[in-house]
């Protein structure tokens, strides 16, 4: 996984000092590969221990591992994953975050009810997740219409959870539901493609799959299997709370 992808995956762990170091690394990546941890700390106006902690937050074994990985990235051109199902699933497993999965499962288990909302193909995936939650008796409602989800949010409180699926993270009606939940301090779990987007910015827990948009003859044929992988994995974590 490339440095920028690690930063996005573990964004929730990072603080302002980490962001400052990351900005420096991104700007001077080639220089960093030849620097000692002491030199990098000096250039980034921090201390070596902070660099080491950042390296581990990003999933590296330590600074040397991070530095060597950056060197490899500079030497080897980035290859966009193939869009076949195997490659998309493989990439999805790579970006799955156990800590985020456990946190999402905990919030689902401790909530009084779960509201699910998604449009188009995402609606079918919401129904699949709803069934998995109902297996252990979790009060769950899956909504397919705007007025239904907004009404349910009006009736809900902070002990509810809103689970939203939108691969783009930009679907207007989904964002409207998210904004309503934010107004009422209802926690949001989002599932989107692995990219920065408005929906993940509003969510308490961001879950990602690797499913870039794909069209053919004007039809959206984006793969849904990566979404199912995440939902099935989350369900297995959730069932352990029963």
Automatic annotation (TrEMBL):
One of its GO terms (biological process) is carbohydrate derivative metabolic process. It comes from the Bacteria. Keywords: DNA-binding, Transcription, Transcription regulation. It holds the Pfam family SIS. CDD domains: SIS_RpiR (cd05013). Residues 1-77 form the HTH rpiR-type domain. Residues 104-242 form the SIS domain. Gene3D superfamilies: Glucose-6-phosphate isomerase like protein, domain 1 (3.40.50.10490), Winged helix-like DNA-binding domain superfamily/Winged helix DNA-binding domain (1.10.10.10). GO terms for molecular function: carbohydrate derivative binding; DNA binding; DNA-binding transcription factor activity. InterPro entries: Homeodomain-like_sf, HTH_RpiR, RpiR-like, RpiR-like_SIS, SIS_dom, SIS_dom_sf, WH-like_DNA-bd_sf. This is SIS domain-containing protein. It comes from Halobacillus litoralis. The lineage of its organism: Bacteria, Bacillati, Bacillota, Bacilli, Bacillales.
């Amino acid at each position: 996984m490339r440095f920028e992808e690690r930063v996005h995956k573990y964004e929730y762990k990072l603080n302002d000092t980490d962001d400052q170091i990351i900005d420096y690394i991104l700007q001077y990546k080639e220089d960093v590969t030849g620097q000692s941890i002491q030199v990098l700390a000096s250039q980034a106006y921090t201390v070596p221990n902070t660099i080491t902690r950042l390296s581990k937050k990003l999933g590296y074994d330590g600074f040397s591992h991070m530095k060597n990985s950056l060197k490899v990235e500079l030497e080897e051109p980035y290859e966009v994953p193939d869009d076949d199902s195997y490659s998309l699933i493989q990439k999805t497993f790579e970006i799955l975050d156990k800590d985020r999965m456990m946190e999402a499962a905990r919030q689902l288990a401790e909530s009084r009810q779960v509201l699910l909302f998604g449009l188009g193909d995402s609606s079918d995936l919401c129904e699949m997740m709803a069934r998995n939650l109902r297996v252990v008796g979790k009060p769950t409602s899956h909504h397919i219409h705007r007025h239904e989800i907004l009404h349910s949010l009006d009736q809900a409180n902070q002990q509810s959870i809103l689970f939203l699926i939108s691969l783009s993270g930009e679907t207007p009606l989904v964002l409207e539901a998210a904004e309503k939940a934010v107004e009422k301090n209802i926690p949001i779990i989002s599932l989107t493609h692995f990219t920065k987007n408005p929906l993940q910015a509003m969510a308490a827990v961001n879950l990602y799959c690797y499913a870039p948009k794909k069209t053919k003859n004007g039809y959206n044929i984006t793969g849904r299997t990566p979404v199912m992988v995440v939902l099935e994995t989350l369900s297995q974590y959730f069932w352990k709370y029963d």
